[in-house]
Known about the structure:
The chain is mainly α.
Amino acid sequence: MCCVYVLWFLRPALSRACLQRLAADLQADGERESAIIRSRGNAAKLVLSAEGHRASTLLRARGDAQAKTLLATCEAEAVKHIRRAVKDEVRAVDYLAAVEYINKLQVMAAGRGNTEVVLVPIETVQAVGNMSGLTTAAARMSAGHK
């Protein structure tokens, strides 16, 4: 800056060159400061993004854990209700296994996927019926209605 005042009075041609050099220096300083500020902003953006992702992951994990706990509690209540409903005729776990087996057979019979024909041995069907106690319960109910 001192150069500008000295050269301004001595030689107008040199003062213009000095002013241009000063302008170039100031522009370079501004660009350097801009790059530093931009770099700090990008660093802050990365940090905040990582913190947000971490918080999101933790909240999602907590929600998933609560959902699993709630689902297990509901399933336990369902088993209790089934146990009360079937009393001593059938074990609740056998009944649930038979229902699940039947549901899987329905999915296979609906033809989802590449399955066209499902062959199930009759012994398997009878075993499911016996395991669930449905056969004996149905026989008792039909005998009671006659």
